[in-house]
C-alpha cells in the first residue's frame, strides 16, 4: 500500500496520496509508552 500511494503521488501530485504514504510509514507507539512519559513529567513538577 505504501509503495502504491507513493507511485500514485509521484505520477499525479495528489496531496491525499502523499498523506496516505506518510501515514502508513509511521509506526504507532503503544499508548503505555506515552502514558509513562507523561507520568514521569508530572512527577518532576510536583
From TrEMBL:
It comes from the Bacteria. Pfam families: YqzL (PF14006). Residues 26-46 are annotated as: Disordered. This is YqzL family protein. The lineage of its organism: Bacteria, Bacillati, Bacillota, Bacilli, Bacillales.
Amino acid at each position: 500500500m505504501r509503495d502504491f500511494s507513493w507511485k500514485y503521488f509521484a505520477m499525479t501530485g495528489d496531496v491525499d496520496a502523499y498523506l496516505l504514504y506518510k501515514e502508513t510509514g509511521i509506526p504507532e507507539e503503544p499508548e503505555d509508552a506515552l502514558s509513562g512519559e507523561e507520568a514521569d513529567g508530572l512527577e518532576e513538577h510536583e
